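Saturday, quiet lab. Running sequence design on the structure tokens for the scaffold JK sent over.
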């Protein structure tokens, strides 16, 4: 007799709430969001995720729509396997996607209107209001069980949030975190430095290649460059000077569960060469990739040693892992959920193969 369930036994695919909200402390601007409610308990199964809110935190370039494929894949897998799932929330920060610009910004975009700390405070207010709106009680006394799934600068936002509001974040999935303490120009050798030796450059790479790469990164990625969102990175290295600190505390005082994911070195090098930067692949492979990998490895120290996994390489994915590998992200989300809520131990490497 088959154990597989027929379609009529499965819960229907949830209908998202696509809406906007005005924060109580910023009444002149709207934040747009997409919210999926948690699965309903059945006669055979309760939902251990009923008080869990999984929140997607965008990078600077891709808005909340970049998580749509990941969300769809994750929900389809959970529903087809008759597994419960939490509420899912994606949103556009002020100045991003469909949302209005931050009303506190003094200048029109592109600008340095507000920093990541300001974005963390707005996120807290946003989550309080969303959670209150979707609870049957009018005055919730505590936060939901928060899990952040983040890309790029969203990882820095998650770190600042979890440190500023300890005890609120149970799980973190970092997808190619921004190197928050880097100016992105210093990744590359400096031909004007007194100690520079052109003989140390990789074969086939000229001083001009290095100068061009440094200039391209300075023009596009240096923290002094403003952006259309108005989210300044000028003080990011001051806010997060080290990848290994500050230590984070989740509910109960122990560290949150953490999975750190890095890009595929070859794919990232290929995309960097084929894109607008035209960075020679050997430069990316020699300088940027190893430094990024070391940064990711240091991130594991922000929580308890038994709560951290990684760095995991997202095979076939560049920096925007949710775009290149939505199915991969869905799998990592499910694994993190089981660790956070069910205490499931996740194994990697040789232990996972045994």
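Result came back. Writing it out in full:
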């Amino acid at each position: 007799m088959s154990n597989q369930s027929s379609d009529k036994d499965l819960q229907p695919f949830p209908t998202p709430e696509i809406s906007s909200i005005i924060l109580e402390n910023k009444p002149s601007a709207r934040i747009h969001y997409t919210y999926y409610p948690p699965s309903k308990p059945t006669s055979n199964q309760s939902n251990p995720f009923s008080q869990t809110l999984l929140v997607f935190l965008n990078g600077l370039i891709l808005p909340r729509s970049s998580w749509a494929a990941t969300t769809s894949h994750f929900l389809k897998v959970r529903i087809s396997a008759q597994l419960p799932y939490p509420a899912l929330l994606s949103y556009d920060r002020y100045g991003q996607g469909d949302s209005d610009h931050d009303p506190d910004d003094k200048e029109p975009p592109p600008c340095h209107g507000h920093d990541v700390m300001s974005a963390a405070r707005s996120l807290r207010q946003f989550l309080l209001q969303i959670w209150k709106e979707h609870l049957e009680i009018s005055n919730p006394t505590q936060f939901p069980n928060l899990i952040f799934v983040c890309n790029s600068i969203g990882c820095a936002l998650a770190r600042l949030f979890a440190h500023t509001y300890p005890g609120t974040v149970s799980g973190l999935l970092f997808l190619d975190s921004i190197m928050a303490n880097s100016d992105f120009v210093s990744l590359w050798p400096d031909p004007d430095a007194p100690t520079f030796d052109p003989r140390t450059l990789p074969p086939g790479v000229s001083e001009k290649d290095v100068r061009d790469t440094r200039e391209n990164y300075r023009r596009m990625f240096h923290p002094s460059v403003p952006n259309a969102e108005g989210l300044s990175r000028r003080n990011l290295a001051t806010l997060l000077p080290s990848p290994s600190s500050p230590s984070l505390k989740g509910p109960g005082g122990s560290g949150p569960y953490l999975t750190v994911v890095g890009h595929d070195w070859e794919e990232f090098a290929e995309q960097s060469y084929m894109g607008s930067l035209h960075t020679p692949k050997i430069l990316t492979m020699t300088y940027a990739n190893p430094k990024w990998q070391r940064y990711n490895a240091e991130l594991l120290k922000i929580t308890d040693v038994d709560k951290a996994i990684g760095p995991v390489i997202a095979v076939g994915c560049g920096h925007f892992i949710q775009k290149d590998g939505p199915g991969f992200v869905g799998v990592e989300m499910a694994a993190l959920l089981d660790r956070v809520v069910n205490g499931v131990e996740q194994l990697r490497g040789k232990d996972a193969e045994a």
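Notes for JK: The chain has ten helices and ten strands. The beta strands are 17-22, 30-36, 52-57, 87-91, 114-115, 145-152, 169-177, 231-232, 257-263, 308-314. Ask whether to fix the surface positions before the next round.
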